[in-house]
Amino acid sequence: MPAYVIVGMQWGDEGKGKIVDYLTQYAEIVVRHQGGNNAGHTVVVNGRKTVLHLIPSGILHPGISCIIGNGTVLDPAVLIQELDSLEAAGYPTAGRLFFSDCAHVIMPYHKRLDSAQERFRGKNRIGTTGRGIGPCYADKADRMGIRLGDLVNEALFADKLGAVLEYKNGVLEKVLGEPPLQFDDIFAEYCGYADRLRPYLTDAVHMVHEAVAADKRIIFEGAQGAMLDLDHGTYPYVTSSTTVSGGVCAGAGVGPTNINGVIGIVKAYTTRVGEGPFPTELTDALGEQLRTQGNEFGATTGRPRRCGWFDAVQLRRAARLNGMTAIVMTKSDVLSTLDSVKICTAYKVRGILTTDFPTGIDAFEQIEPVYEEMPGWKQNLSGCRSWSDLPEPARRYIQRIEELLGVPVCTISVGPGREETIERVDPFTLTASRRADVPG
Ligand code: GDP
Ligand code: IMO
Ligand code: MG
After folding, report:
1. pLDDT at 437
2. Residue ranges per domain, the chain?
Protein backbone atom coordinates (compact mmCIF):
# COMPACT_ATOMS: atom_id res chain seq x y z
CA MET A 1 0.00 0.00 0.00
CA PRO A 2 2.49 2.64 -1.13
CA ALA A 3 0.42 5.79 -0.58
CA TYR A 4 2.06 9.18 -0.17
CA VAL A 5 0.68 12.59 0.67
CA ILE A 6 2.12 15.63 -1.10
CA VAL A 7 1.32 18.67 0.94
CA GLY A 8 2.15 22.38 1.07
CA MET A 9 4.11 23.35 4.19
CA GLN A 10 3.69 27.13 4.16
CA TRP A 11 0.79 29.35 3.03
CA GLY A 12 0.17 27.67 -0.33
CA ASP A 13 1.73 28.09 -3.78
CA GLU A 14 4.85 26.16 -2.80
CA GLY A 15 4.93 24.42 -6.19
CA LYS A 16 2.74 21.41 -5.36
CA GLY A 17 1.42 21.20 -8.93
CA LYS A 18 4.90 21.00 -10.44
CA ILE A 19 6.04 18.35 -7.97
CA VAL A 20 2.88 16.24 -8.18
CA ASP A 21 3.31 16.24 -11.97
CA TYR A 22 6.99 15.32 -11.58
CA LEU A 23 6.41 12.50 -9.09
CA THR A 24 3.46 11.10 -11.03
CA GLN A 25 5.98 9.37 -13.29
CA TYR A 26 6.47 7.00 -10.35
CA ALA A 27 2.76 6.64 -9.48
CA GLU A 28 -0.43 5.11 -10.80
CA ILE A 29 -3.18 7.19 -9.20
CA VAL A 30 -3.40 10.83 -8.11
CA VAL A 31 -6.15 11.95 -5.74
CA ARG A 32 -7.29 15.43 -4.68
CA HIS A 33 -8.95 15.22 -1.27
CA GLN A 34 -9.72 18.77 -0.08
CA GLY A 35 -10.14 22.35 -1.25
CA GLY A 36 -11.70 23.57 -4.45
CA ASN A 37 -10.92 26.06 -7.16
CA ASN A 38 -9.31 28.37 -4.61
CA ALA A 39 -6.27 26.26 -5.56
CA GLY A 40 -4.15 27.06 -8.59
CA HIS A 41 -1.55 24.42 -9.44
CA THR A 42 0.86 25.24 -12.26
CA VAL A 43 2.52 22.56 -14.35
CA VAL A 44 5.01 23.32 -17.13
CA VAL A 45 5.75 20.51 -19.58
CA ASN A 46 7.90 21.10 -22.66
CA GLY A 47 7.54 24.83 -22.13
CA ARG A 48 3.74 24.66 -22.13
CA LYS A 49 2.02 25.93 -18.99
CA THR A 50 -1.18 24.37 -17.62
CA VAL A 51 -2.92 25.76 -14.55
CA LEU A 52 -5.17 23.28 -12.78
CA HIS A 53 -7.68 24.30 -10.12
CA LEU A 54 -9.60 21.09 -9.47
CA ILE A 55 -8.29 18.27 -11.62
CA PRO A 56 -5.27 16.51 -10.11
CA SER A 57 -1.88 17.57 -11.49
CA GLY A 58 -1.14 13.98 -12.56
CA ILE A 59 -3.58 14.30 -15.48
CA LEU A 60 -0.85 15.32 -17.96
CA HIS A 61 0.65 11.82 -17.76
CA PRO A 62 -1.12 9.44 -20.14
CA GLY A 63 -2.63 6.37 -18.53
CA ILE A 64 -2.68 7.78 -15.00
CA SER A 65 -5.99 7.67 -13.13
CA CYS A 66 -7.04 10.83 -11.33
CA ILE A 67 -9.68 11.06 -8.65
CA ILE A 68 -11.38 14.06 -7.07
CA GLY A 69 -12.36 12.86 -3.62
CA ASN A 70 -15.29 13.39 -1.27
CA GLY A 71 -13.52 16.08 0.78
CA THR A 72 -13.39 18.59 -2.06
CA VAL A 73 -15.85 21.33 -3.03
CA LEU A 74 -16.54 21.62 -6.75
CA ASP A 75 -17.77 24.48 -8.88
CA PRO A 76 -19.25 22.59 -11.84
CA ALA A 77 -18.73 25.44 -14.31
CA VAL A 78 -15.01 25.59 -13.45
CA LEU A 79 -14.68 21.82 -13.58
CA ILE A 80 -16.27 21.68 -17.04
CA GLN A 81 -14.05 24.52 -18.27
CA GLU A 82 -11.02 22.59 -17.04
CA LEU A 83 -12.23 19.38 -18.71
CA ASP A 84 -12.72 21.25 -21.98
CA SER A 85 -9.33 22.92 -21.96
CA LEU A 86 -7.54 19.66 -21.13
CA GLU A 87 -9.34 17.86 -23.96
CA ALA A 88 -8.51 20.74 -26.33
CA ALA A 89 -4.85 20.54 -25.32
CA GLY A 90 -4.74 16.83 -26.16
CA TYR A 91 -5.17 15.32 -22.71
CA PRO A 92 -8.19 12.99 -22.82
CA THR A 93 -10.02 12.54 -19.52
CA ALA A 94 -12.68 9.91 -20.24
CA GLY A 95 -12.12 6.64 -18.42
CA ARG A 96 -9.28 7.94 -16.26
CA LEU A 97 -10.78 10.84 -14.37
CA PHE A 98 -13.33 10.22 -11.63
CA PHE A 99 -15.28 12.45 -9.25
CA SER A 100 -16.65 11.38 -5.91
CA ASP A 101 -20.45 11.53 -5.76
CA CYS A 102 -19.99 12.77 -2.18
CA ALA A 103 -18.02 15.91 -3.13
CA HIS A 104 -19.98 19.07 -2.37
CA VAL A 105 -21.17 21.44 -5.09
CA ILE A 106 -20.43 25.16 -4.99
CA MET A 107 -23.69 26.97 -5.73
CA PRO A 108 -24.25 30.58 -6.86
CA TYR A 109 -25.31 31.60 -3.34
CA HIS A 110 -21.96 30.40 -1.97
CA LYS A 111 -20.10 32.84 -4.20
CA ARG A 112 -22.53 35.66 -3.36
CA LEU A 113 -22.15 34.97 0.37
CA ASP A 114 -18.36 34.76 0.11
CA SER A 115 -18.09 38.30 -1.25
CA ALA A 116 -20.85 39.67 0.99
CA GLN A 117 -19.17 38.25 4.11
CA GLU A 118 -15.85 39.76 3.07
CA ARG A 119 -17.59 43.13 2.72
CA PHE A 120 -19.07 42.75 6.21
CA ARG A 121 -15.68 41.91 7.68
CA GLY A 122 -14.35 45.28 6.51
CA LYS A 123 -10.82 45.83 7.79
CA ASN A 124 -10.81 42.27 9.16
CA ARG A 125 -11.43 40.73 5.74
CA ILE A 126 -9.63 37.46 5.05
CA GLY A 127 -8.81 38.18 1.43
CA THR A 128 -10.54 35.01 0.21
CA THR A 129 -10.35 33.93 -3.39
CA GLY A 130 -14.07 34.75 -3.68
CA ARG A 131 -14.84 31.30 -5.08
CA GLY A 132 -17.49 30.39 -2.49
CA ILE A 133 -15.22 27.92 -0.70
CA GLY A 134 -15.97 28.93 2.92
CA PRO A 135 -19.77 29.11 2.52
CA CYS A 136 -19.82 25.75 0.71
CA TYR A 137 -17.85 24.00 3.49
CA ALA A 138 -20.05 25.78 6.06
CA ASP A 139 -23.17 24.30 4.42
CA LYS A 140 -21.55 20.88 4.46
CA ALA A 141 -20.96 21.15 8.20
CA ASP A 142 -24.48 22.58 8.58
CA ARG A 143 -25.91 19.57 6.68
CA MET A 144 -27.35 21.90 4.08
CA GLY A 145 -24.95 21.01 1.27
CA ILE A 146 -25.75 19.64 -2.16
CA ARG A 147 -23.44 16.84 -3.25
CA LEU A 148 -22.55 15.78 -6.79
CA GLY A 149 -24.66 12.65 -6.29
CA ASP A 150 -27.67 14.88 -5.49
CA LEU A 151 -27.03 17.09 -8.50
CA VAL A 152 -27.28 14.24 -11.00
CA ASN A 153 -30.65 13.11 -9.61
CA GLU A 154 -33.05 15.74 -10.94
CA ALA A 155 -35.90 15.13 -8.47
CA LEU A 156 -33.57 15.04 -5.47
CA PHE A 157 -31.75 18.14 -6.69
CA ALA A 158 -35.02 20.08 -7.15
CA ASP A 159 -36.12 19.13 -3.68
CA LYS A 160 -32.83 20.07 -1.98
CA LEU A 161 -32.32 23.27 -3.96
CA GLY A 162 -35.88 24.43 -3.22
CA ALA A 163 -35.41 24.08 0.52
CA VAL A 164 -31.92 25.55 0.70
CA LEU A 165 -32.64 28.45 -1.64
CA GLU A 166 -35.57 29.62 0.48
CA TYR A 167 -33.20 29.87 3.44
CA LYS A 168 -30.33 31.43 1.47
CA ASN A 169 -32.59 34.02 -0.14
CA GLY A 170 -33.76 34.96 3.36
CA VAL A 171 -30.15 35.60 4.36
CA LEU A 172 -29.33 37.43 1.12
CA GLU A 173 -32.40 39.70 1.27
CA LYS A 174 -33.03 40.24 4.97
CA VAL A 175 -29.53 40.11 6.41
CA LEU A 176 -27.32 41.30 3.57
CA GLY A 177 -29.81 43.48 1.67
CA GLU A 178 -29.06 41.74 -1.62
CA PRO A 179 -31.49 40.66 -4.37
CA PRO A 180 -32.67 37.01 -4.19
CA LEU A 181 -31.59 34.27 -6.59
CA GLN A 182 -34.14 32.57 -8.85
CA PHE A 183 -34.79 28.83 -8.49
CA ASP A 184 -35.56 28.29 -12.19
CA ASP A 185 -32.32 29.92 -13.37
CA ILE A 186 -30.12 27.88 -11.03
CA PHE A 187 -32.02 24.66 -11.66
CA ALA A 188 -31.70 24.91 -15.44
CA GLU A 189 -28.03 25.91 -15.31
CA TYR A 190 -27.02 23.17 -12.88
CA CYS A 191 -29.04 20.42 -14.63
CA GLY A 192 -26.96 21.25 -17.72
CA TYR A 193 -23.78 20.76 -15.69
CA ALA A 194 -25.13 17.50 -14.27
CA ASP A 195 -25.51 16.01 -17.76
CA ARG A 196 -21.86 16.77 -18.53
CA LEU A 197 -20.48 15.52 -15.21
CA ARG A 198 -22.60 12.37 -14.76
CA PRO A 199 -20.23 10.00 -16.63
CA TYR A 200 -17.35 10.88 -14.32
CA LEU A 201 -19.17 10.18 -11.04
CA THR A 202 -18.21 7.22 -8.94
CA ASP A 203 -17.76 5.87 -5.44
CA ALA A 204 -14.27 7.34 -5.17
CA VAL A 205 -13.61 5.82 -1.77
CA HIS A 206 -14.17 2.37 -3.23
CA MET A 207 -11.75 3.17 -6.07
CA VAL A 208 -9.06 4.29 -3.65
CA HIS A 209 -9.54 1.14 -1.56
CA GLU A 210 -9.21 -1.03 -4.67
CA ALA A 211 -5.95 0.73 -5.52
CA VAL A 212 -4.67 0.25 -1.98
CA ALA A 213 -5.58 -3.45 -2.12
CA ALA A 214 -3.83 -3.81 -5.49
CA ASP A 215 -0.69 -2.22 -4.02
CA LYS A 216 -0.76 0.63 -6.53
CA ARG A 217 1.27 3.72 -5.79
CA ILE A 218 -1.12 6.52 -4.88
CA ILE A 219 -0.30 10.21 -4.56
CA PHE A 220 -2.66 12.38 -2.54
CA GLU A 221 -2.33 15.94 -3.84
CA GLY A 222 -2.87 18.55 -1.19
CA ALA A 223 -4.12 22.03 -1.95
CA GLN A 224 -3.25 25.22 -0.01
CA GLY A 225 -0.70 24.84 2.80
CA ALA A 226 -0.32 23.94 6.47
CA MET A 227 -0.66 27.52 7.69
CA LEU A 228 -4.00 27.86 5.87
CA ASP A 229 -5.41 24.82 7.71
CA LEU A 230 -8.76 25.50 9.37
CA ASP A 231 -7.60 24.18 12.75
CA HIS A 232 -3.86 24.68 12.71
CA GLY A 233 -3.32 27.73 10.52
CA THR A 234 -3.32 31.41 11.40
CA TYR A 235 -7.08 31.40 12.16
CA PRO A 236 -9.23 33.18 11.04
CA TYR A 237 -6.91 33.96 8.12
CA VAL A 238 -7.17 30.43 6.80
CA THR A 239 -9.16 28.44 4.29
CA SER A 240 -12.11 26.25 5.29
CA SER A 241 -10.66 22.76 4.89
CA THR A 242 -8.13 20.51 6.59
CA THR A 243 -5.03 21.16 4.55
CA VAL A 244 -2.57 19.19 6.71
CA SER A 245 -1.80 15.58 5.77
CA GLY A 246 -4.35 14.22 8.25
CA GLY A 247 -7.07 15.64 5.98
CA VAL A 248 -6.41 12.84 3.52
CA CYS A 249 -8.05 10.31 5.82
CA ALA A 250 -11.43 12.04 5.90
CA GLY A 251 -11.17 13.63 2.47
CA ALA A 252 -10.35 10.45 0.56
CA GLY A 253 -11.68 7.84 2.96
CA VAL A 254 -8.50 6.03 3.93
CA GLY A 255 -7.13 5.18 7.34
CA PRO A 256 -3.85 6.58 8.66
CA THR A 257 -2.43 3.06 8.38
CA ASN A 258 -2.79 3.31 4.59
CA ILE A 259 -0.35 6.21 4.34
CA ASN A 260 3.34 5.45 3.99
CA GLY A 261 4.91 8.87 3.89
CA VAL A 262 4.31 12.61 3.77
CA ILE A 263 6.24 14.63 1.21
CA GLY A 264 6.27 18.29 2.19
CA ILE A 265 6.63 20.93 -0.50
CA VAL A 266 8.73 23.76 0.88
CA LYS A 267 9.56 26.94 -1.02
CA ALA A 268 13.10 28.26 -0.49
CA TYR A 269 11.52 31.46 0.85
CA THR A 270 7.98 32.29 2.00
CA THR A 271 4.93 33.70 0.25
CA ARG A 272 1.36 34.38 1.23
CA VAL A 273 -1.69 35.67 -0.71
CA GLY A 274 -4.51 37.44 1.09
CA GLU A 275 -4.55 38.89 4.59
CA GLY A 276 -3.13 37.52 7.84
CA PRO A 277 0.08 37.18 9.85
CA PHE A 278 3.39 36.68 8.07
CA PRO A 279 6.30 37.12 10.49
CA THR A 280 9.13 37.13 7.93
CA GLU A 281 7.38 39.31 5.33
CA LEU A 282 9.60 41.74 3.43
CA THR A 283 7.66 44.88 2.61
CA ASP A 284 10.70 46.59 1.10
CA ALA A 285 12.49 46.49 -2.25
CA LEU A 286 13.83 43.00 -1.51
CA GLY A 287 10.29 41.67 -1.17
CA GLU A 288 9.48 43.26 -4.50
CA GLN A 289 12.59 41.67 -6.01
CA LEU A 290 11.52 38.19 -4.82
CA ARG A 291 8.03 38.78 -6.22
CA THR A 292 9.42 39.75 -9.61
CA GLN A 293 12.10 37.08 -9.81
CA GLY A 294 9.84 34.36 -8.48
CA ASN A 295 6.90 35.52 -10.60
CA GLU A 296 4.87 35.54 -7.40
CA PHE A 297 1.40 36.34 -8.66
CA GLY A 298 -1.58 34.16 -7.72
CA ALA A 299 -2.39 31.36 -10.19
CA THR A 300 -6.08 31.71 -9.30
CA THR A 301 -6.74 35.41 -8.71
CA GLY A 302 -3.61 37.02 -10.20
CA ARG A 303 -3.04 38.90 -6.93
CA PRO A 304 0.57 39.77 -6.08
CA ARG A 305 1.89 37.37 -3.43
CA ARG A 306 3.47 38.79 -0.29
CA CYS A 307 7.09 37.58 -0.08
CA GLY A 308 9.57 37.06 2.76
CA TRP A 309 12.44 35.02 4.16
CA PHE A 310 12.41 31.31 4.95
CA ASP A 311 10.75 30.76 8.33
CA ALA A 312 12.10 27.70 10.16
CA VAL A 313 9.87 28.35 13.19
CA GLN A 314 6.76 28.13 11.04
CA LEU A 315 8.14 25.15 9.14
CA ARG A 316 9.07 23.15 12.21
CA ARG A 317 5.46 23.51 13.32
CA ALA A 318 4.26 22.45 9.86
CA ALA A 319 6.64 19.45 9.81
CA ARG A 320 5.09 18.17 13.03
CA LEU A 321 1.51 18.93 12.06
CA ASN A 322 1.97 16.87 8.90
CA GLY A 323 4.31 14.13 10.10
CA MET A 324 6.57 15.16 7.22
CA THR A 325 8.97 12.40 6.15
CA ALA A 326 10.63 14.10 3.15
CA ILE A 327 11.08 17.63 1.84
CA VAL A 328 10.93 18.77 -1.76
CA MET A 329 12.48 22.22 -1.92
CA THR A 330 11.23 24.47 -4.71
CA LYS A 331 12.33 27.81 -6.15
CA SER A 332 15.86 27.89 -4.73
CA ASP A 333 16.79 29.29 -8.19
CA VAL A 334 14.83 32.47 -7.36
CA LEU A 335 17.36 33.43 -4.66
CA SER A 336 20.25 33.24 -7.12
CA THR A 337 20.93 36.97 -7.39
CA LEU A 338 21.18 37.65 -3.66
CA ASP A 339 24.51 38.33 -1.92
CA SER A 340 23.22 36.67 1.23
CA VAL A 341 20.13 34.76 2.31
CA LYS A 342 18.37 34.69 5.68
CA ILE A 343 16.61 31.99 7.67
CA CYS A 344 14.37 32.86 10.59
CA THR A 345 15.33 30.50 13.44
CA ALA A 346 13.40 32.04 16.34
CA TYR A 347 10.86 34.74 17.18
CA LYS A 348 11.02 37.43 19.80
CA VAL A 349 7.47 37.75 21.13
CA ARG A 350 7.07 40.77 23.41
CA GLY A 351 10.83 40.67 23.89
CA ILE A 352 10.93 36.95 24.84
CA LEU A 353 12.82 34.56 22.59
CA THR A 354 10.87 31.50 21.44
CA THR A 355 11.10 28.77 18.80
CA ASP A 356 7.39 27.94 19.14
CA PHE A 357 4.90 29.11 16.53
CA PRO A 358 2.15 31.12 18.28
CA THR A 359 -1.40 29.77 18.34
CA GLY A 360 -3.25 33.04 18.93
CA ILE A 361 -3.62 35.77 16.34
CA ASP A 362 -2.81 38.53 18.86
CA ALA A 363 0.76 37.26 19.41
CA PHE A 364 1.66 37.92 15.78
CA GLU A 365 1.41 41.67 16.20
CA GLN A 366 4.36 41.57 18.59
CA ILE A 367 6.63 39.20 16.66
CA GLU A 368 10.15 40.08 15.71
CA PRO A 369 11.92 37.40 13.65
CA VAL A 370 15.46 36.41 14.61
CA TYR A 371 17.59 35.65 11.55
CA GLU A 372 20.64 33.64 10.66
CA GLU A 373 22.42 35.01 7.60
CA MET A 374 24.24 32.81 5.09
CA PRO A 375 26.21 33.59 1.93
CA GLY A 376 24.22 33.58 -1.31
CA TRP A 377 25.29 31.51 -4.31
CA LYS A 378 25.11 34.17 -7.04
CA GLN A 379 24.77 31.54 -9.70
CA ASN A 380 21.93 30.47 -11.96
CA LEU A 381 20.70 27.09 -10.70
CA SER A 382 18.26 26.27 -13.48
CA GLY A 383 20.77 24.05 -15.32
CA CYS A 384 21.70 22.00 -12.22
CA ARG A 385 20.55 18.38 -12.45
CA SER A 386 22.38 16.75 -9.57
CA TRP A 387 23.29 17.53 -5.96
CA SER A 388 26.91 17.98 -6.93
CA ASP A 389 25.95 20.50 -9.66
CA LEU A 390 24.65 22.85 -6.95
CA PRO A 391 27.10 25.51 -5.75
CA GLU A 392 28.46 24.95 -2.25
CA PRO A 393 26.54 27.87 -0.60
CA ALA A 394 23.23 26.54 -2.01
CA ARG A 395 24.01 23.08 -0.63
CA ARG A 396 24.85 24.61 2.75
CA TYR A 397 21.53 26.53 2.77
CA ILE A 398 19.62 23.32 2.09
CA GLN A 399 21.60 21.36 4.69
CA ARG A 400 20.96 24.04 7.32
CA ILE A 401 17.24 23.79 6.62
CA GLU A 402 17.38 20.00 6.99
CA GLU A 403 19.15 20.45 10.29
CA LEU A 404 16.59 22.96 11.57
CA LEU A 405 13.59 20.86 10.52
CA GLY A 406 15.02 17.41 11.14
CA VAL A 407 13.71 16.14 7.79
CA PRO A 408 15.79 15.33 4.67
CA VAL A 409 15.52 17.37 1.47
CA CYS A 410 15.03 14.65 -1.16
CA THR A 411 14.27 16.63 -4.27
CA ILE A 412 15.26 20.15 -5.31
CA SER A 413 13.33 22.06 -7.93
CA VAL A 414 15.35 24.66 -9.83
CA GLY A 415 12.76 25.95 -12.29
CA PRO A 416 9.09 25.60 -13.25
CA GLY A 417 9.70 22.98 -15.96
CA ARG A 418 9.22 19.27 -15.28
CA GLU A 419 12.86 18.59 -16.16
CA GLU A 420 14.24 21.33 -13.92
CA THR A 421 14.43 18.95 -11.00
CA ILE A 422 17.24 17.39 -8.96
CA GLU A 423 16.74 13.95 -7.45
CA ARG A 424 18.88 13.46 -4.36
CA VAL A 425 17.10 10.76 -2.36
CA ASP A 426 14.00 8.79 -3.42
CA PRO A 427 11.21 10.42 -1.34
CA PHE A 428 9.10 7.26 -1.65
CA THR A 429 11.60 5.23 0.35
CA LEU A 430 11.21 7.42 3.43
CA THR A 431 8.59 6.58 6.01
CA ALA A 432 8.04 7.69 9.58
CA SER A 433 10.32 4.91 10.78
CA ARG A 434 12.97 5.03 8.06
CA ARG A 435 15.29 8.03 7.76
CA ALA A 436 17.36 8.97 4.74
CA ASP A 437 21.02 8.48 3.98
CA VAL A 438 21.64 11.84 2.35
CA PRO A 439 24.84 12.59 0.48
CA GLY A 440 27.02 15.21 2.14
P1 GDP B 1 1.01 25.36 -6.05
O2 GDP B 1 -0.27 26.05 -5.77
O3 GDP B 1 1.70 24.88 -4.81
O4 GDP B 1 0.87 24.25 -7.07
O5 GDP B 1 1.98 26.44 -6.68
P6 GDP B 1 1.59 27.51 -7.85
O7 GDP B 1 1.54 26.78 -9.14
O8 GDP B 1 0.42 28.30 -7.45
O9 GDP B 1 2.83 28.48 -7.74
C10 GDP B 1 4.14 28.03 -7.94
C11 GDP B 1 4.75 28.82 -9.11
O12 GDP B 1 6.14 28.60 -9.13
C13 GDP B 1 4.24 28.37 -10.46
O14 GDP B 1 4.26 29.48 -11.32
C15 GDP B 1 5.27 27.33 -10.89
O16 GDP B 1 5.36 27.20 -12.30
C17 GDP B 1 6.53 27.93 -10.33
N18 GDP B 1 7.56 26.99 -9.89
C19 GDP B 1 7.43 25.76 -9.32
N20 GDP B 1 8.65 25.27 -8.97
C21 GDP B 1 9.55 26.20 -9.32
C22 GDP B 1 10.98 26.30 -9.17
O23 GDP B 1 11.66 25.44 -8.64
N24 GDP B 1 11.57 27.44 -9.66
C25 GDP B 1 10.86 28.44 -10.24
N26 GDP B 1 11.51 29.51 -10.66
N27 GDP B 1 9.52 28.38 -10.39
C28 GDP B 1 8.88 27.29 -9.92
P1 IMO C 1 -2.87 26.51 -3.69
O2 IMO C 1 -3.44 25.11 -3.68
C3 IMO C 1 -2.48 30.35 -1.71
C4 IMO C 1 -5.91 31.73 0.66
C5 IMO C 1 -6.65 32.96 0.16
C6 IMO C 1 -7.11 33.54 1.48
C7 IMO C 1 -7.45 32.31 2.32
C8 IMO C 1 -8.93 31.94 2.32
O9 IMO C 1 -2.73 27.11 -5.06
O10 IMO C 1 -1.63 26.58 -2.86
P11 IMO C 1 -10.55 30.87 0.49
O12 IMO C 1 -10.95 31.37 -0.85
O13 IMO C 1 -9.90 29.53 0.49
O14 IMO C 1 -11.65 30.95 1.51
O15 IMO C 1 -9.43 31.94 0.99
O16 IMO C 1 -6.70 31.25 1.75
N17 IMO C 1 -5.78 30.62 -0.32
C18 IMO C 1 -4.65 30.32 -0.94
N19 IMO C 1 -3.45 30.93 -0.95
N20 IMO C 1 -2.66 29.23 -2.42
C21 IMO C 1 -3.85 28.58 -2.41
O22 IMO C 1 -4.02 27.38 -3.00
C23 IMO C 1 -4.93 29.15 -1.68
N24 IMO C 1 -6.22 28.80 -1.48
C25 IMO C 1 -6.72 29.70 -0.64
O26 IMO C 1 -5.79 33.82 -0.53
O27 IMO C 1 -6.05 34.19 2.13
MG1 MG D 1 -1.21 27.85 -6.19
Report:
1. 73
2. 3-75+205-437, 104-199
